[in-house]
């Protein structure tokens, strides 16, 4: 009985000894390098167990392995024995376990960790953090996109852990966060030494469409394209190049956002200080067209001084065309200064003012009565437009087309493109109008016909047409119209139908319009005038004679 108890105690002690001496699989154990051969290190992990580890597992990315016989190392025991009776161990897995413990502590404390970029993967890079592999997204490599990451490969540098999941084996790190932090410190120091209005030297770091970023020694400032020169700059690359050293002035510093606005033109003399003296009103100058818009063209008078030629000031004759059809970019043009607004830094220029008004030229060279020839440019409901010298038009009104036909009928004989002859009737330079007449070719028949007729005269006309509103009559070949209200002083007799075509009618001349070639006629006015004359000759208000007696006497006198 006692013998059996002692055997059980011995077996328990033996098992306890085995458990204490034999390392547990899946744990990190210490071992000693006993040999290095065939690219492998042979390591004794105790309890007469040996294993092999490839030498590359002892090397950091991009470096040679550093392991010698006698070195003590930690390895991960994957299995106590394989088919060859050797322990299956891994230095890499041991480093990983060790690294994860260290990295978790650093992540919790928001501390930086050291690592080296050793590979490129989709969307970023792989980083060795001393045994654990992390993912570095492409957007987290630098504060600006990196085109070539070659110089960064294998270089030991600090990283910030953004997130990690040990169960899934995921670690995401950022190099950009480290750079931004140090950059912010450096930026704050540099900005504290800058003042608005200070002149500093900087290096052009980047060029965009709207300006350039200039490095002022650790902090970037924006040099906007409008602050590069007093003149118009279409693109910053016209005057700057990357890497160029430039002198700039600090225009504004935003202490909260640490943004710095820079200027180059502020170091030069403002050409606008001399504009009023150099460009007096109504003076003419030669400039270069720099930009064309829908509303006009910008003309550079000198570097830094531009003026606008509004579309309305570009041409005397081309009223509704795009400025690009009158001038072109880079064209040299002569302009006149119309207005200067010093406060708004604006100069209003005129292009047409450098050329004579074509209507004034036409009036000088074509006095009234001059015969002209031109092409029918347009036909409207009120007349014909004829193209004349100097790219201007003259108008033939309906009433000036024909003596014999009504204007509405006469205009049907013309087509666009017809070449016609006409006579200049009137030129109004202020309103830019030229009146022409086709029917006056060969002389003014109206003037000839009514040359001896005066206003108030009684003439005999022939009825040529009966209309609802009155009657059309003719005198010496000239057509006129007597309105219904002028057909008689007696309202009951104001009926056009009481007349017939061919009737001879006496009418009083109430108006002579030489411009419209019209006679104003009235039968009513004739009757009133005759009655007034009869009263004066044959009676008075106190004679006692009746109106019938007076008219009877007047008629008898006429018969005699």
TrEMBL record:
SMART domains referenced in this protein's UniProt entry, alphabetically: S1
InterPro entries given in the database record: NA-bd_OB-fold, Ribos_protein_bS1-like, Ribosomal_bS1, Ribosomal_protein_S1-like, S1_domain
Signal peptide stretch: none
Key word Transit peptide present: no
Keyword terms: Repeat, Ribonucleoprotein, Ribosomal protein, RNA-binding
Gene Ontology cellular-component terms listed: cytosolic small ribosomal subunit
Stored Pfam families: S1
GO aspect biological process, one term: translation
Keyword Electron transport recorded: no
A GO molecular function held by the record: mRNA binding
Stretches assigned to the S1 motif domain: 26-92, 110-176, 197-265, 282-352, 369-439, 456-524
Family according to the record: Belongs to the bacterial ribosomal protein bS1 family.
Main function: Binds mRNA; thus facilitating recognition of the initiation point. It is needed to translate mRNA with a short Shine-Dalgarno (SD) purine-rich sequence.
Protein name: 30S ribosomal protein S1
């Amino acid at each position: 009985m006692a013998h059996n108890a002692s055997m059980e105690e011995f077996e328990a002690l033996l098992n306890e000894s085995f458990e204490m001496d034999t390392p547990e699989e899946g744990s990190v154990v210490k071992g000693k390098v006993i040999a290095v051969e065939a690219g492998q290190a042979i390591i004794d992990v105790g309890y007469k167990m040996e294993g092999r580890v490839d030498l590359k597992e002892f090397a950091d990315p991009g470096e040679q392995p550093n392991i010698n016989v006698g070195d003590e190392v930690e390895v991960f025991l994957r299995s106590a024995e394989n088919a060859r009776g050797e322990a299956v161990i891994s230095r890499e897995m041991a480093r990983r376990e060790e690294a994860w413990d260290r990295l978790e502590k650093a992540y919790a404390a928001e501390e930086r960790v050291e690592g080296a970029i050793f590979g490129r993967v989709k969307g970023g890079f792989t980083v060795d953090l001393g045994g654990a592999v992390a993912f570095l997204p492409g957007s987290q490599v630098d504060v600006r996109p990196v085109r070539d990451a070659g110089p960064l490969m294998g270089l030991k540098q600090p990283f910030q852990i953004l997130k990690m999941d040990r169960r899934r084996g995921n670690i995401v790190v950022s190099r950009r966060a480290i750079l931004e932090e140090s950059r912010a410190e450096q930026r704050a120091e540099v900005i504290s030494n800058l003042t608005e209005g200070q002149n500093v030297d900087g290096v052009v770091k980047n060029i965009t469409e709207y300006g350039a970023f200039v490095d002022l020694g650790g902090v970037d400032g924006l040099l906007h394209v409008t602050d590069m020169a007093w003149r118009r700059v279409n693109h910053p690359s016209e005057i700057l190049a990357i890497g160029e050293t430039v002198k700039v002035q600090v225009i504004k510093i935003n202490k909260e956002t640490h943004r710095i606005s820079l200027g180059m033109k502020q170091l030069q003399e403002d050409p606008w200080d001399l504009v009023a003296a150099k460009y007096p009103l109504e003076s003419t100058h030669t400039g270069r067209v720099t930009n064309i818009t829908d509303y006009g063209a910008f003309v550079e008078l000198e570097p830094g001084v531009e003026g606008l030629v509004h579309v309305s000031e570009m041409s005397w004759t081309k009223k509704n065309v795009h400025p690009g059809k009158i001038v072109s970019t880079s064209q040299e043009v002569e302009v006149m200064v119309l207005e200067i607004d010093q406060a708004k830094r604006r100069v209003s220029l005129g292009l047409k003012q450098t050329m004579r008004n074509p209507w004034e030229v036409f009036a000088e060279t074509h006095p009234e009565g001059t015969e002209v020839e031109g092409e029918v440019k347009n036909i409207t409901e009120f007349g014909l437009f004829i193209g004349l010298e100097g790219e201007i038009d003259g108008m033939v009104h309906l009433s000036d087309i024909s003596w014999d036909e009504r204007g509405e009928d006469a205009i049907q004989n013309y087509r666009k493109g017809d070449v016609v002859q006409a006579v200049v009737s009137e030129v109004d330079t202020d309103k830019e109008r030229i009146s022409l007449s086709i029917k006056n070719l060969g002389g003014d028949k109206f003037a000839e016909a009514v040359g001896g007729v005066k206003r108030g005269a009684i003439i005999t006309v022939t009825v040529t047409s009966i209309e609802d509103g009155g009657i059309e009559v003719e005198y010496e070949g000239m057509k006129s119209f007597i309105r219904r209200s002028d057909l008689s002083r007696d309202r009951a007799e104001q009926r056009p139908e009481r007349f017939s075509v061919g009737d001879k009618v006496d009418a009083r001349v109430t108006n002579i319009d030489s411009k419209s070639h019209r006679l104003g006629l009235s039968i009513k006015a004739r009757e009133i005038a005759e009655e007034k004359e009869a009263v004066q000759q044959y009676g008075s208000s106190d004679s006692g004679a009746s109106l019938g007696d007076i008219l009877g006497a007047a008629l008898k006198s006429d018969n005699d």
